Amino acid sequence: MKAKLISIFSDSEEAKIRQLLQELELGDQKPSQFWRKMKDLAQNRLTDEILKTLWLQRLPTSVQQVLTGNKEAMTSLIITADRIVEITDSRPQVNAAVSGSNPEIARLVQAIENLVSRMNQLEAQPQRSRSRSRPDRSKPRRHRSSTPAQEGLCFYHSTYGDKARKCESPCSRRQPPKN
Fold first, then answer.
1. HEC profile for the chain?
2. What's the whole-model pTM score?
3. I need a labelling partner for 3 at 20 to 30 A (CA). Which of 51, 70, 132, 153 fits?
4. 51's torsion region: left (phi>0), alpha (psi -120 to 50) or beta?
5. How many Cβ atoms sit within 10 Å of the Cβ of residue 58?
6. With the CA atoms of 111, 112, 118 and 120 taken in that order, what torsion angle do they form, in degrees rounded to the nearest 10?
7. pLDDT per residue as tens, the chain (179 positions)
8. Residue 80 and residue 95: Cα distance in Å, rounded?
9. Which residue in 116, 92, 115 sits closest to 27, CA to CA?
């Protein structure tokens, strides 16, 4: 009768292994407590090397970086992990695969899709002038010098003085053509 009650109310071995491989997380436990829980669930069905790998994967990233590749005995690694967590006093970060049903990710994906759609609409619209006072390019522009022209002189004489090679009327320096 006792054996039957235990078998009914206890998890099956398959359920324990599934919990160990998929569901078990560090949470707010110390790494040493987490290791003991993993060992209890494994019930000698998994090697210590496999358990060590699973244990390391579920520790915070800062602890993983220190312990990965360390060849010390498991008891030494557990003590070191406890110290690191105690010193860093940070919340454990779980390294888990992100499921596609995460609402935050779905919201971000939707926002990106909206931005891409809006960019495509803007690219499809005809380009409009940013300035409302754009000069009319069909009319020739007049450039005026910042210095006032000398009275009675053409452009060439006012610019080049006596060294001017050309002259235009009206100009006070214009000489009548030589015959």
1. CHHHHHHHHCCCHHHHHHHHHHHCCCCCCCHHHHHHHHHHHHCCCCCHHHHHHHHHHCCCHHHHHHHCCCCCCHHHHHHHHHHHHHHHCCCCCCCCCCCCCCHHHHHHHHHHHHHHHHHHHHHHCCCCCCCCCCCCCCCCCCCCCCCCCCCCCCHHHHHHHHHCCCCCCCCCCCCCCCC
2. 0.43
3. 51
4. alpha
5. 21
6. -160
7. 777 666 665 566 777 777 767 777 888 888 899 888 888 887 777 788 888 888 888 888 888 888 887 778 888 888 988 888 888 765 545 555 544 457 788 888 888 888 888 888 888 777 665 556 666 666 666 655 555 556 788 888 888 888 888 888 888 887 766 65
8. 19
9. 92
Amino acid found at 135:
P
Find tokens 């599934």 and name the residue: 18
Structure tokens at 110: 């939707």
Q: How many residues are given for the chain?
A: 179
What one-letter code names the amino acid at 30?
K
